[in-house]
Amino acid sequence: MREHISDSRRRLAYPILVGGSLAGLVWTLRLGSGLSAPHQDVASAPGASASATAAVFHLSIFLAQLVAVILVSRGVGRLMRRIGQPQVVGEMLGGLLLGPSVLGIIAPGVYAALFPIGSVRFLNAVSQLGVLLFMFLVGLELDLDTLRGRGHVVTLTSHAGIAMPLWLGAGLAVLLYPRLSTDGVRFVAFALFIGCALSVTAFPVLARLLAERGWSKTSFGALAIACAAAADITAWCVLAIVLAIADGSAWGVQLWLSLGGAVGFVVLMMTLGRRVIAATLARTSRREGLTSDRLAIVVVVALASAWVTEQLGIHALLGAFIAGLVMPKAEEFVSAITVRLEELLGVALLPLFFAVTGLRTNLATIEGSSMWLLCGLVVLVAIIGKAGGTVMGALASGLSWRDAASLGALMNTRGLMELVILNLGLEIGIITRPVFTMMVLMAIATTALTAPALTWLRSERRLAHRARLEAPSVVGP
After folding, report:
1. Which of 218, 410, 413, 436 shows the smallest number of beta carbons within 10 Å?
2. 55 touches 117 (CB < 8 A)
3. Is 289 helix (H, G, I), strand (E, B) or coil?
C-alpha cells in the first residue's frame, strides 16, 4: 500500500467521490421524474411472476424437477470448476439451460412435461426457504469486527463502490424506464432498484475466491473482506429503502412506518437480541458441538426475524440477514452451523432457486439489435460503476494500482446475491421480464470475469516481470 497520500487528500476524496456520485444520483432522479413508462395491464405485464392458471401439486412432477435440477447444476458446476470458474457460475448457467431459452427451444416437449404451467410456484416456494437460509449464512459469515481498525480505507472504498453504481444505474434507468418498465412503477423506485442491483457484491463468492487462492489471511484478503462486508451492509440498507418506497407507493406514512420499524428492529436485534441469543447459545462448546436443539433455536431465530421484516413491509430476506449478523462469531460455532446448512443448501435448495431464475429468464424477451445493445450497455455500466468506483476509492485511500484493481475485480462479482435481488424485484413488480433477463446475463458475465481478472492481475510471473522492470540497474565495479 502507498503511504504518501496526504491526510488532506484523503479527507477530500470522500466528498468528491461519494458526495459527487450521490449529487449526480439526485440530479438524475429529478431528470427522470418526468418520464412515463408504457401502459400495461398487471395481468399481462412482463414482470408478472405467477400464472393465472390454477395449479395442482403433483409429487411425481416435483421429484422429476428436483432430480433434473440437481443433476444439471452439479454437472455444469463441476465443468465450470475445471476451467477455473466458481461453482456458482455453473449453477447459474444450469438454471438457464433448464429454462425456455435452451431446453424450451431444443426439446419443447420435454420442457412442457417437466415444467408444466403453474408448477414453478411450487419450486419457488421451496427455493425461498433456501434463499432465506442462504441470507442467514451471509450474515453469519460477516464479522463486523473486520471493519474496525481500517476506518477510512474501508469506508471510502466501499461507499465509492456503492455510490457510483447507484448514480450510473439511475442514469441507465433513464434509458430503460420509458422502454421496458410499466406505468404502475414509479421512476424513483425503478431507478434506485437498478442502481442497487448494480451495487451489490457476492460476499460468499468473494470470500471463497480468496480462500481458494490462500489470500484470506493476508492483509489484502482481510481488506477485501472488510470492504465487501461494509458494501453489502450498505447495499442492503439501500434495498430496504427501495422496497419501502415500492410498497408505500409514495413518500407517505406507510413508507416511514416501514423504515422506522425496520430501524427499530435492527437496533433491538443488535443490542438486546444479540445478548439474548448469545446467552441462549452460550453452552455450545467444542466438546459438545452444535446439537440439534441448538440448531433448531438458530433456525427459529432466523425464520422469526425474517417474518418480522416481512410484516414491516421490508422483506423477509433482510430479517434473515440481520439474524445471521447478530449471531455469535466464535469460529467453532460459525463453522458448525455453516457445515450443517451448506450441504442441504448447496445440493438441493439453492439449485432450485437457480432453476426458478432460469425458468423466469427468457432470451426471447430481448428482441432486436437495439435491445441487445441495451443489454450490453447494462453489462458495461455494471462493470464501470462497481469496479470503477471501487478502484477510484481504493487509489484515493492509498492502495497501489495492483491492489486497487484486484479489489475492483473482486467487488464486481455478483453471483447469487444479484439473483436474489433480481427475483425479488420481479416478484414485487419493480422490473419487467426483459429487464430481469438483461440483469441476469449481467450477473453471470460479471461473476465469470472475476476469476480470470484476478489471475491476470496477481499473476506471480507478471509481478516478477514488473519487479525486474522497476528494479534499479546494478553497475559493476
Report:
1. 218
2. yes
3. strand
Question: 112 vs 86, 100, 428, CA distance in Å?
Answer: 31, 9, 26
- List CB contacts of 195: < 8 A, sequence separation 6 or more: 25, 165, 166, 167, 168, 169, 170, 173, 238
Burial of 287 (0-12, 13-18, 19+ CB in 10 A): exposed
**Are 286 and 332 spatial neighbours (Cβ–Cβ below 8 Å)?**
yes
Whether this model's pTM surpasses 0.90: no
CA 10 to chain centre: 29
213: cell is 487462492
- pLDDT 10s digits, 372-401: 999 999 999 999 999 999 999 999 888 888
Residue 145 falls in which region: left (phi positive, over 0), alpha (psi -120 to 50) or beta: alpha
- Which structural domains are found in the chain, ordered by start? 126-352+370-447 (1.20.1530.20)
Higher local confidence (pLDDT), 80 or 144? 80
- For the CA atoms of 455, 458, 459, 463, what is the dihedral angle to 10 degrees? 160
The mean-pLDDT minimum among 103-107, 342-346, 369-373 falls in 342-346
Q: What are phi and psi of 363, to 5 degrees?
A: -65, -20
Q: Which residues contact 269 (CB under 8 A, 6 or more apart)?
A: 305, 322, 323, 325, 326
Instruction: Please tell me whether residue 285 adopts helix, strand or coil conformation.
Output: strand
By the 8 A CB rule, do 388 and 408 touch? yes
Amino acid in the structure at residue 130:
G
Radius of gyration of the CA atoms of the chain, in A: 23
Cβ atoms of residues 422 and 42 within 8 Å? no
Q: Are 382 and 165 in contact (CB under 8 A)?
A: yes
Residues 6+ apart with CB under 8 A from 114: 61, 64, 65, 68, 98, 103
Q: Is 413 exposed, middle or buried (0-12, 13-18, 19+ CB in 10 A)?
A: buried
